[in-house]
């Protein structure tokens, strides 16, 4: 049963679901992409970041940026590693 609020009082609203779960998952996947399987983890991090941005999460832009950086830098590191390994 709800009671009306008194004069001059704001009605109480339920707390917003202000979670950054997908953004944090995207950031973690972007960091993992630096070391291990950049295409897989980098793209998964970007997808999590975009979904988080559509949900309005605060850290979504950071997640997208970290995931793109992890994808690009991880690919460069992998290319340098394998090129050095097979160049003799």
Distance between the termini: 78 Å
Please tell me how large the radius of gyration is.
21 Å
Total separate domains? 1
Approximately what portion of the residues adopt beta-strand conformation?
under 5%
- Content-based structural category: mainly alpha
Average residue pLDDT = 85
Q: Return residue spans where pLDDT drops below 50 for at least 5 consecutive residues.
A: none
Major sheet size, sense and barrel closure = none
Helix percentage: 55-70%
**What's the count of strands?**
0
Number of helices: 3
What general form does the structure show? rod-shaped
Write down the oligomeric state.
single chain
Structure notes:
With 88 residues, the protein is mainly alpha-helical. The protein has one domain (21-86). It has three helices and no strands. It is rod-shaped and about 80 Å long. The relative contact order is 0.18. The mean pLDDT is 85.
Identify the notable features of this structure and list them briefly.
88 residues; mainly alpha
Question: How would you summarize this macromolecular structure in one to three sentences?
Answer:
The protein contains 3 helices and no strands. With 88 residues, the chain is mainly alpha-helical. Helix 1 runs antiparallel to helix 2, helix 1 runs parallel beside helix 3 (60-86) and helix 2 packs antiparallel against helix 3.
Secondary structure elements and pairings:
Elements: H1 21-33, H2 38-55, H3 60-86
């Amino acid at each position: 049963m709800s009671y009306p609020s008194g004069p001059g009082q704001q009605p109480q609203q339920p707390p917003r679901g202000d979670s950054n779960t997908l953004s944090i998952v995207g950031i973690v996947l972007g960091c993992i992409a630096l070391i291990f399987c950049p295409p897989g983890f980098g793209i998964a991090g970007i997808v999590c970041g975009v979904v988080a941005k559509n949900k309005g999460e605060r850290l979504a832009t950071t997640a997208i940026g970290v995931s793109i950086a992890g994808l690009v830098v991880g690919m460069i590191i992998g290319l340098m590693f394998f090129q050095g390994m097979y160049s003799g």
